[in-house]
Write a structure and sequence with these properties.
The chain has about 775 residues and is mainly β. The chain folds into 2 domains: about 110 residues, Phage tail protein beta-alpha-beta fold, CATH 3.55.50; about 525 residues, TonB-dependent receptor, beta-barrel domain (Maltoporin, Chain A, Beta Barrel), CATH 2.40.170. Helix content is about 5%, strand content about 55%. It contains 7 helices and 44 strands. α2 runs antiparallel to α4. The longest helix has 12 residues. It is globular, with a radius of gyration of 26 Å.
């Protein structure tokens, strides 16, 4: 292990520097290595500017001044060995200077070898080696990302054992973090995981939109509850996608395409492209991303004479235009459009021939996601401002085969329309180990669920539900050093929440209404202890909650509607973190947590197959996780991670008394992953990367109690791939599910047959992808 930690006296020593001219981001990375200092750049356009470099013997401060000369950037010393690089007040951008050789594109936050990671989702810009909590940061290498971006959230789930998902299919899954799982079914309850694109909230009570990850710079996963900083809907934690921001003063682009073939299935492919263009000199730039993918099907329906019925198509794009008038100000206007459509469900039935299922009708699915946002920022030396307003329109349409055994065909349709308006304005600042953030946020969400059941040609409407949720919150968090290397973080969020629910029919008639108002305080307390030589110990206490709502009552109930109450989660965790990923040859982290969950909301289905939502009681969750990264020798890297979970419904309500001490749904008791990556420079602009991974998903249950206590999971999945870089071009070959394991990811596909306990969702058979990517 090698951890470079410099003292204040070291920073003032005369040192030898040898940093060539080039992009400022790369020059600062070399400076951090040679000076033994931590350098953070939160503005990608600064990282892209050209520095004249520095050579000779001098103090670190003098060398840094020379590196920044003429770039329009200035250094803010957080402490003696930690520096933030920001735009100089009132500076104008120098004209861009191009070198003959192609330069790598910086991500939204410069993260790479020899640089520290800043946890931007902390909203205080906290370095990872100071952050008192459980966090995982996935830096998405452009070459690797081009190979798996079309997988969307599945690529994140595959790399982090503490992140779990249902397996209904792309665009219709629920996500869970650290064992906080309410149910395996979709419904009107708020998600347990908050999903964000930068500072933009993506969902409130919707399934995972499953955005394509092309040109995403990194993914941050903060384990929850993150009630203080993010409010409701973050019981399990936060998954934050950080897109690459528009670059000023330079044109840039990339493209990727792949052909895919699935064993005993069909053929498909994917394509994506990014273009960055300066519009008005060095003050306005636009960055756009477009993508398309076809996931081949692999399930046949012999009763209808169809093959590969579970084929899925996806297309969409993102665009952002950024204006920087100077003095640290920036304005970004952006949007996202994505459509996902599946021809049929991806489940089969036990007892049927492998990879086959017979259904009376097709069961298609469609997920249309639209987002528009405006972000205003000012990065100041003392105080920074960030203000984001976003509008989301999300339409999710599902069809299920509701045909009874031996009866005439019946079709169930569920159309969910969600409109989400969100806003947050916050201020942050501080120096050294003293930092703070304070802000105000608001959310307005309307969810409308319409349902039809009956004749496949024209099913009549049945009761639906409309929920309207409003929230306004004030929040703040402050970090203060106590004794020597010990710091304490205190924070709180005061939320006023209002919920209105009513039953609806297709004609908008209402047959019931429920209203409620609540004021909640979500505190957090954390203590960190930098024990020296790259070792950090921390303890963290935090709370979070979800708002209640109105749902359709289960079949046979004397009432048409059923109110479900809000639930709350309290978590205490302790952990250790050693080293800095990407900078030290060895880094590791481990966390032990206990969660107490009160009045758990759960989306369920009744014995007839119709969905409903209720509170099932109180539960508890114990969890342990560990991660490590080791550069064995130059170019050879090993990653390993493990997650252990023990959960139970400890105090069920009367209707679920038989399920007491049953484990919570869909979370495996154990999960693990090991990965190996080897890279070698072959010279003349040519390099080779080989990588492979083994992932184990342990046993879990579909639901709590009969008839949903069906076993799933307990499989091992392997993958192998590589990429040959030829200058600006890359050629890749990847094989997933190398051993062609069937397994059972998920014991659910159709609510109208789930009580028969014979549904399984097999892994996608062995799939080969041949890809080509380019930079220009």
């Amino acid at each position: 292990m090698a951890c470079l930690i410099a003292s204040a006296a070291d920073a003032a020593d005369i040192r030898a520097f040898a940093i060539p001219a080039g992009p400022l981001g790369g020059a600062l990375a070399r400076f951090g290595e040679q000076a033994g200092m931590t350098i953070g750049v939160s503005d990608p356009s600064l990282a892209a500017r050209r520095s004249a470099g520095v050579r000779g013997r001098m103090s670190a401060q003098a060398a840094l001044q020379r590196l920044l000369r003429g770039t329009g950037a200035q250094a803010v010393f957080v402490d003696a060995v930690t520096v933030r690089i920001i735009r100089s007040a009132g500076s104008r951008r120098p004209s861009p200077v191009r070198s003959a050789a192609p330069q790598p594109r910086p991500s939204a936050l410069v993260v790479g070898p020899q640089q520290d990671i800043i946890v931007t989702a902390s909203k205080q810009g906290t370095p990872l080696d100071r952050y008192a909590g459980s966090v995982s940061v996935l830096a998405l290498d452009p070459g690797k990302n081009a190979r798996e971006a079309s997988s969307g959230t599945a690529a994140v789930v595959a790399r982090l054992p503490m992140v779990a998902s249902t397996s209904l299919g792309p665009g219709r899954d629920k996500l869970f973090v650290r064992g906080i799982a309410d149910s395996s079914f979709n419904g009107p309850s708020q998600a347990t995981v908050g999903q964000y694109l930068g500072d933009v909230r993506l969902t409130y009570n919707a399934p995972d939109p499953d955005l394509n990850l092309y040109d995403i710079g990194r993914v941050e996963v903060l384990e929850g509850p993150q009630g203080t900083l993010y409010g409701t809907g973050s019981l399990g934690g936060i998954i934050r996608l950080v897109p690459n921001a528009p670059l000023m003063g330079r044109a840039d682009g990339s493209a990727s395409a792949g052909l895919v073939a699935t064993h005993k299935g069909g053929e498909g492919g994917d394509a994506a492209a990014m273009l960055n263009l300066p519009l008005i000199g060095d003050r306005v730039a636009i960055r756009g991303v477009g993508y398309w993918s076809l996931d081949p099907g692999y399930i046949d329906d012999p009763s209808r004479g169809l093959s590969d019925i579970n084929e899925t198509r996806s297309y969409g794009g993102r665009a952002a235009i950024r204006y920087e008038p100077g003095a640290g100000w920036s304005l970004t206007l952006g949007g996202v459009i994505q459509n996902i459509s599946s021809r049929d469900g991806q489940y089969v039935l036990r007892g049927s021939p492998p990879l086959t299922r017979s259904s009376a009708i097709a069961q298609p699915f469609d997920n249309d996601f639209r987002l528009g946002y405006l972000t205003i920022q000012r990065d100041g030396s003392a105080v920074s401002l960030s203000s984001t307003t976003a509008l989301v329109r999300h339409d999710v349409d599902s069809v299920f085969d509701a045909t009874p055994a031996g009866g005439a065909a019946r079709r169930f349709e569920e159309d969910i329309g969600i409109t989400l308006l969100s806003h947050e304005t916050r201020l942050s600042g501080g120096t050294g180990r003293r930092s703070w953030v304070a802000g105000v946020s608001g959310v307005y969400d309307i969810s409308r669920i319409e349902r039809r059941l009956g004749d496949p040609q024209d099913p009549p409407s049945i009761l639906g539900v409309r929920n309207e949720n409003s929230e306004v919150a004030l929040f703040g968090q402050y970090t203060q050093p106590l004794l020597g290397p010990v710091s304490i973080t205190l924070g709180g969020r005061l939320t006023y929440a209002r919920a209105v629910g009513m039953l609806i029919e297709q004609t908008d008639g209402d047959s019931g209404e429920a209203k409620r108002k609540k004021v909640r305080l979500s505190p957090t307390v954390a203590v960190s202890w930098r024990m020296g030589r790259g070792l950090l110990a921390f303890a963290h206490y935090q709370q979070g909650f979800r708002a209640g709502g109105l749902a359709v009552a289960p079949s046979g109930s004397p009432a048409d509607s059923k109110r479900f109450e809000g639930d709350s989660l309290t978590v205490g965790e302790v952990g250790l973190r050693l080293g800095r990923p990407g900078r030290d040859r060895f880094s590791a982290s481990t966390t032990l947590a206990y969660a107490r969950w009160s009045d758990i909301q759960s989306d369920l289905v009744d014995l007839t197959g119709l969905p409903y939502t209720t509170n099932i009681g109180d539960g508890r969750v114990y969890s342990f996780e560990a991660q490590t990264m080791w550069e064995v020798v130059s170019g050879l890297n090993l990653e390993a991670s493990v997650f252990l979970n023990d959960s139970a419904l400890s105090r069920p309500v009367e209707a679920f008394a038989a399920a007491e001490e049953r484990e919570l749904p869909n979370i495996a008791r154990a999960g693990a992953r090991g990965a190996l990556r080897y890279s070698i420079d072959l010279g003349a602009g040519t390099s080779l990367v080989l990588d492979g991974a083994v992932r184990y998903v342990g046993t879990s249950q579909l639901g709590i109690g009969a008839p949903f206590d069906v076993t799933q999971g307990d499989f091992v999945e392997t993958s192998l791939g590589g990429r040959l870089a030829l200058g600006r071009l890359g050629v890749s070959l990847d094989v997933s599910n190398l051993a062609d394991v069937r397994g059972n990811r998920f014991s659910y596909g159709n609510p109208f047959g789930v009580a028969q306990r014979d549904q399984i969702t097999p892994l996608r058979p062995r799939t080969v992808r041949v890809g080509l990517d380019a930079r220009f």
